[in-house]
């Protein structure tokens, strides 16, 4: 009987329609994020004639807004319909992405980056929660690895496209590309079937409040993630400006290609190990 139950668990389907949809949504959100992260420094330097420190300010405003909203978003996904949060945040993400082509000053761009950071913080929180509920318990490690691979691929494909479109001075085309991709995110958000909010054994929902926003057990993992993403964000944000200064834009593209290849290789094996 144990062997039979184990066999059934091993056959639980991972790649359902809903898991496919939420994984592609994850790729889309991070794709737009990394295209803009790489493209905007050159855009503001060439079109808005701003200094390099303004590029750092754009990144800071975006990420600061995303970080501030995250604890509140975590409570919202435990209280309200995750489907509604996913659709509304995806819609807001789309609308704000479509505003980049009409931003012609640093001030307006900073304002848009703050709004974009807020929507990014909400949508990344809810999509992660939904994916965790869609992955079968017997394939948890494998499922999380493949879901994270979508973000990893976006970390490479996004900067690569942003870098090359910056080389061609195709800034407006890049903004509209991001908008078109965000439209696909809306479509997928609408078709995904979201599991209901998990309740405790007594029927109550997860606790809310300031104390519920933090968990000491998660701190070590959060710190590891912080230092890894801190390093990569710095590389992505200033790679285009640095490569252009050295006249090595083509080499920068190859750097991202190599990163993508080894990322995919590592992700494929680690999913089965976990």
Automatic annotation (TrEMBL):
Record's keyword annotation contains Transcription: no
Membrane topology: Multi-pass membrane protein
Pfam families for this protein: MFS_1
Domain Major facilitator superfamily (MFS) profile intervals: 18-274
Domain of life: Bacteria
Molecular function via GO: transmembrane transporter activity
Membrane spanning stretches: 20-43, 55-73, 85-102, 108-130, 142-161, 173-198, 219-242, 248-266
Subcellular location field: Cell inner membrane
GO cellular component: plasma membrane
Name of the protein in question: Permease
Organism the protein comes from: Salmonella enterica subsp. arizonae
